[in-house]
Specification:
Length: 210
C-alpha cells in the first residue's frame, strides 16, 4: 500500500490487533492504518465531541507546556501564530496570549475558517493532531508553506519506539489514531522539507524553517 506520508509503495506488515492492521513504511518509517480501515469523518467527530479539554484544566495546561515552553523560547517578540487542530476547547491560543503571542484557531470540525490557511505565520502549533491525519503528505507541506522564514512548527504526538513496544502501546488503541511517527520519521520530514529538527521529550517536536 502507498504510504500516506512519503507516497512510496515500500510498506510491510507491522502489527495486527483486534481492531486494525498496521503497516510500516520502509522509506520514512511511518506506521499507519490501511485506508480501508479508517473511520468516516462523521464517526471521527462523534469521538472528538467526547473530548473535554479547556484552559481551566491545569493538568491539560501542564501537558501543553511540554511544547509551549520550548516553542516560546524560539519566537521573536509579538510573533503571530496559528493553532492547527484546536479542537472544541481551544487552549493553546489562551496560554500563548498569556505569554504575549496572539494566535488564530483552526480546526476542520470546530473552527473551519479556510481563509486562515492562506495566511503566513511566525509559528504554527499542532498538538495531538498528527496521529489523526489521513494524508500527512498533503497537510505537512501546507503547514510549511504557511510559515514565514525562520518560522517554527510545533507538534505534539507520541512517537513509537519499537515493534515490540508498539504491540503493547495504549496509544494505538484509539481508532482515530491512524499515523504513528518515530524519531526517524520526523528526521525524514525535516530532511524532505528542509527543516531543522528538535526532538523534545517523548512527544514534542519543533521543526524550524530556514
Amino acid at each position: 500500500m502507498t504510504c500516506p506520508l512519503c507516497s512510496k509503495h515500500q510498506t510491510l506488515y507491522f502489527h495486527t490487533d483486534k481492531q486494525r492492521d498496521y503497516l510500516q513504511c520502509q522509506v520514512c518509517d511511518l506506521v499507519f492504518v490501511p485506508k480501508h480501515q479508517l473511520l468516516s469523518a462523521e464517526a471521527e467527530k462523534s469521538l472528538y465531541d467526547l473530548h473535554q479539554n479547556s484552559p481551566d484544566d491545569q493538568g491539560y495546561r501542564q501537558f501543553l507546556d511540554r511544547l509551549l515552553t520550548p516553542l516560546s523560547e524560539n519566537l521573536p517578540d509579538n510573533a503571530q501564530g496559528l493553532d492547527f487542530g484546536c479542537g472544541p476547547g481551544p487552549t493553546i491560543s489562551v496560554m500563548m496570549a498569556e505569554l504575549g503571542f496572539s494566535m488564530d484557531n483552526y480546526d476542520p470540525f470546530y473552527a473551519n475558517q479556510a481563509d486562515l490557511l492562506s495566511r503566513q505565520y511566525d509559528f504554527i502549533t499542532s498538538t495531538e493532531v498528527f496521529e489523526h491525519l489521513h494524508q500527512p503528505c498533503e497537510v505537512i507541506p501546507q503547514l510549511v508553506s504557511m510559515l514565514k522564514p525562520q518560522g517554527v512548527l510545533g507538534i505534539m504526538t507520541k512517537r513509537w519506539i519499537s515493534q515490540e513496544a508498539f504491540a503493547r502501546w495504549h496509544y494505538k488503541n484509539d481508532q482515530t489514531h491512524v499515523c504513528f511517527y518515530s524519531d526517524n520519521t520526523f528526521q525524514w520530514i525535516a530532511d524532505h522539507w528542509d527543516l531543522q529538527l528538535q526532538l523534545i521529550g517523548a512527544d514534542a517536536v519543533l521543526l524550524l524553517k530556514a
